Structures are given as C-alpha cells and as structure tokens.
Amino acid sequence: MAVLELHQVKKSFGSGHTKVEALKETDFLADRGELVAIIGPSGSGKSTFLTIVGGLLSPTSGDVIINGKNLTSLTEKARSQIRLKEIGFVLQASNLIPFLSVANQLKLLDKVKKGNMSKTERDQLYEDLGIADLLMKYPSDLSGGERQRVAIAKALYSNPSIILADEPTASLDSDRAYEVMELLKTVTKQKNTTTIVVTHDIRLVGYCDKVYKMTDGVLSSAIEKHIKRPQTVFEEKVAYTNH
Amino acid sequence: MFLAWQEIKRNKLRFTLITGILMLVSYLVFFLSGLATGLASLNREAVDKWKASAIILTEESDKSLYQSSMSIDQLKDIKAKKTAVIGQLNAIASNGDNKQNISLFGINKEEFLMPNVTEGRAFDKANEVIADDSLKDKGFKLGDTLSLSSSDQQLTIVGFTDHARFNASPVLYANLATFHQVKFGEAADQKKDQINGIVVKDDPILNMYKNNELDSIEIESFIQSLPGYTEQKLTLNFMIYFLFGISSIIVAIFLYVLTVQKISMFGVMKAQGISSTYLSWSVVAQTFILAFIGTALGFALTLVSGAFLPAAVPVSFDLALMVFYGLILMVVATCGAVFSVLTIVRIDPLKAIGG
Ligand SMILES: Nc1ncnc2c1ncn2[C@@H]1O[C@H](COP(=O)(O)OP(=O)(O)O)[C@@H](O)[C@H]1O
Ligand SMILES: [Mg+2]
C-alpha cells in the first residue's frame, strides 16, 4: 500500500473572474524509501500541492490518503495529530525557534509528542545528521546549512513516514544545497521515509528517485531518475529538458 | 511551561522589563493597600477594640457618637446580653511641652469597654486616665499631667494601652465621673446621668430596645459613618482597582506586541502539529510566571521599605489582604494574555509554508 495517495485532488482559490485554479485535478502516489522532487517555476502550484499533502490546506475536491487515513474526512484536530506523528516538515531557513537551543528544539517535540523516541535513538539521530556538536547552540549561532540539518532532525523526530520539504535549499549556496539534498537522500533510504522535495531549483533533481514537473497547476507524470549528481550546468540542463 | 520558561531565559532583557513594570505596579498596589489599612485603623481601632456588635445612639445624632446625648436611665430599656455605657468628647491635651488632639472616653471600669493596660496601671480615682500608646511617640509619658483645651480639669496618665485611636485621635480612657467633670465643669453634678451612647454585645441586634428616640447601629455601619472614613477608603480603593486595570492593560499590550513578532514562528510550530492549545497555554503560563515574579518582588519591596518608614506614616500592612491583592494582580495580569491567545488561535499554519 502506498504511504501517500491523492485521488482527483483539485484546489482553486477565489471565485468568479478572480478564480485561480492553483492545482488542477491531480492523482499521485508515493511509496516508502522514495525521494520525490516536484519542480516548477514560482506560482505553478508546488506549495499548494505540498500543503494539501501535509493536511494544512483542504482541497476543493478529491481525497488525500495517508497510511490509509483519508485526511479530508478528518477534523482539524485529528489532522494536527497526523501532522505531529506521520509528517515531518522541512521549510525554508529560519524555521527554527530562535530562543531554543538545538537540543531544546528537539526536546519541545519530545514534549508535545509525548516522548516516543528513546535516548539511544535520539543520539543516533544527532549522529546521523551531524548535529551532535551543535546541541547547545542557538539558531542565530548556526550557519544556513547547519540550520537546515537541525530542521531535518526536527522533521525526522518520532520517525514520521512522510517528509515534506518546501524549498529547503532556497536560502543556501550551491554546496550547502547539495549537502542538504544528500542528507535528505540518505535519510530517506535509511529511515525508509517518503520524502517530497518541492523546489524551483533544477540542480537538485539529480538526488531524487522520481521527478515531477508542475506547470500552471498541472502535475506531469513521474520520471524515474538514476543520475547520482549532475556534474555540470550543461548536464543538469540536459537532465531536466530531456523529460 | 517549557517553551515559556526557555523564552524568558533567552530574552532576559525584555522580560525583565515587563517584570519590572509589574513589580512597580504591585508595589504601588501594596503600598496603597497599606495606606488604606493604616488610615482605616487610625479611625477605627479603638472601636474594633470593643469587639461589640452594635452601638445605641439617639436617633437625631445621625450615627455620630459625639452628637448623641442620652440618660444612663435608658439602659433599663435595653435588652442585650452585655452593655457598656460611653461618654465621649474631643479636646486638645497638653503636657506643657506637647499638644495633641485626643478623644476622651468616659467608661465604667467593670464594663467591657475597659481597655487592656500595657504599661502602668488602670485608673482608680478621678482625673486618672489610661492613654493610647501612640501618645508616647508624641512626647507624652507615664505620670504626665495633662491640661485640656475645654476644661480646667487636670488629668494624669497612669497607664497606657495599645491600638486605641478613634477617628484619628489617640483615646484617653477615664471613669464617667472624670468625663463629666471635664465636659460640664461646675455643672457636673446635675449632669452625672448624661452619656453619649451604649455599646452592646449581642446577636441579633434587632429589637434590643423599646424606645423610639434611640437607634441601634451595627458597629461596621457606625465605623463607616465616622467623619471622612468612607471617603478615604473609597478613594484609595478606587486607586487600587484602577491599578489592577492598568496592570492588565500593560501586560496585554506588551504580550500582544511580543506575540505579533512571533506569528511566523507560531505558524511553523502549528504546521509541525503543535496545537494551538499548547501554544496558548505556553503564553498564559509565561504571563503567569512574569506576574508571579513581579508581584513577589513588589511584595518583598513593600515589606522592606515598610520597615524603614517613619512611624508617623500611617501605613500598616495587612498580610492577608496583600496576598489577596497579589493574587488578584496575578489573575488580572494573566487575563492580559487573552489577546495573544486569540491571535495565536487565528494564526494559519499555511502562512508558514509559503514561498
Ligand atoms: N491563499 C491563496 N489565495 C489565493 N491564491 C493563492 C493562494 N495561495 C496560492 N495562490 C495562488 O495559487 C497559485 C499557486 O501558488 P503556489 O502553490 O504558492 O505556487 P509555488 O509554490 O509553486 O510558487 C499562484 O497563482 C498563487 O497566486
Ligand atoms: Mg511555494
């Protein structure tokens, strides 16, 4: 069974002549251990898609099914519980809580999720993400890449089945961006999560198992990717335009 | 609590500011309440000392002890468990060096108006008085001979009692004969049955007398009618209530500004599935922590500065009342968090994702 299924999901904003069809009728499936990229220009509907998948936004019509549970039929409270337990969000930089140390960012989740991660698991997570040395630091003391690593750690806390990342590399330079993608890829394989990365940055698609293209609210069909990492700008371009 | 406390620890300056404001407001509240208590006891402590339930005065006196005048014979019309007669006048007493407004109580030694003696002895003979010990601060002492403004009579202080001020004047207690001498001079003999009122202990206080010239007044109502008492109390209480309002508004504004600054952060947390309830409680808990620290500091500051006040300042701290006001202050300050809670509840986690 797929971890995530979308059936004929549609989203429009407004009505009449101001009506925007941000997401046209979409079907979508994703499995465990898959790193999926959704690329497309700004305003094409990527964030709309991601927020619907994350249960933050209700579709105008259609069904979103996460691990067999139909999000659209749940109350906001129940959806919030699913976000807490099944979904990890990685957002643009500055999504860390400024007044909490790295250790406390995670401790907060421990408190609201009522501690479903053991100390060994936690230490392992710190090791995996290379943040063990940053625990006492505050977000303002971290570099952009370090911040995103902490953000990914937060997303992974309590082992969600789905990780949703909206432009996770937007505020990073290329090297840091590749690092973060590398990390997301490792994590996806290691923790066997379904990871969806939304971006307008085509350089990142090389890390992903599947790439979808979003154009004016239309999601193109999946393209299997096997290229490890685009080496040159030329290659990247080819990799993107070929499909 | 965790989130609330971590934020306070990390942003010490801004939270010290708001705690400081709360401390000053609570300091003012405690001080005003101390002043209210002090001024009140200045007026009423001699009456409180009676531990009586009512006082019977003439109807036409309009609850004024000084204006009431009746015959001691009227005692027979009163059916209360315990009665005590009282004569009262105001005068200026002088021991040669010092002058002071006093209130003279003429009483029967064996009745319950007789005060406790903390120094010296009780009065035995004519012209002997027990004085309120606040007179000691004014330069009066045991054995002093007092001359009174309205009389040729000379009184001697033979003893002191404590907590005996009536309508802001220290009380001198003497027997009825002495009182009559002071009040009527030559005519004392013809007027020896004249008293101002009868203090009674009984409940209920209804139907204690069968005489329509008399009126029984509950002690609390008698105190409220003391000149200036109610006005003073209302003024000070009004200021205190006003301060409650102010502290609530200050906290509300301050927190609201802080909350608005953190909207996107709250949005991110909500997107991650942290509930509005958790975040709201966190803000409420934070406010409560600040209100608690501020009020506790204000409390301590009040007691410390109270210890250094000159005795002449009529401040007296009623700890139970202060604790009560402190709790009210914490509650109203915490109510100031309500706008922030409303803001948090309305934050759309979607906004956090945008990009
Ligand atoms: N809350 C909203 N109200 C109205 N229009 C919206 C809203 N959110 C998004 N849109 C519109 O939907 C389209 C897709 O937006 P979005 O999903 O944010 O694109 P992307 O993330 O790819 O940049 C855009 O035209 C945007 O203006
Ligand atoms: Mg977007």
From TrEMBL, chain A:
| Keyword hit for Chloroplast | no
Name the source's superkingdom: Bacteria
Q: Which residues form the ABC transporter domain?
A: 4-241
Q: Which SMART domains match?
A: AAA
Q: Which Pfam families match?
A: ABC_tran
- One MF term in GO for this entry? ATP binding
> Cellular location of this protein?
Cell membrane
**Which PROSITE patterns does this entry report, sorted A to Z?**
ABC_TRANSPORTER_1 (PS00211), ABC_TRANSPORTER_2 (PS50893)
Primary localization: membrane
Query: What keyword terms does UniProt attach to this protein?
Result: ATP-binding, Cell membrane, Membrane, Nucleotide-binding, Transport
Task: Fetch the Gene3D superfamilies from UniProt.
Answer: P-loop containing nucleotide triphosphate hydrolases (3.40.50.300)
| Membrane-related topology note | Peripheral membrane protein
Q: How does it assemble?
A: The complex is composed of two ATP-binding proteins (HrtA), two transmembrane proteins (HrtB) and a solute-binding protein.
Q: Which family does it belong to?
A: Belongs to the ABC transporter superfamily. HrtA family.
Role:
Part of the ABC transporter complex hrt involved in hemin import. Responsible for energy coupling to the transport system.
UniProt-recorded name of the protein:
Putative hemin import ATP-binding protein HrtA
Species this protein is from: Neobacillus kokaensis
**Annotated gene:** yxeB
From TrEMBL, chain B:
Top-level taxonomic group: Bacteria
Q: Secretion signal: which residues? A: none
Q: What is its main location?
A: membrane
Is this entry keyworded Transmembrane?
yes
Give its localization: Cell membrane
| Keyword field contains GTP-binding | no
Ranges where the ABC3 transporter permease C-terminal domain occurs: 237-349
Q: Kindly list the residue ranges recorded as spanning the membrane.
A: 21-42, 238-258, 278-303, 323-345
Q: Where is the MacB-like periplasmic core domain?
A: 29-201
Keywords for this entry? Answer: Cell membrane, Membrane, Transmembrane, Transmembrane helix, Transport
**Protein family (similarity comment):** Belongs to the ABC-4 integral membrane protein family. HrtB subfamily.
Give the record's subunit note.
The complex is composed of two ATP-binding proteins (HrtA), two transmembrane proteins (HrtB) and a solute-binding protein.
> Any idea what this protein is called?
Putative hemin transport system permease protein HrtB
The protein's organism comes out as Neobacillus kokaensis
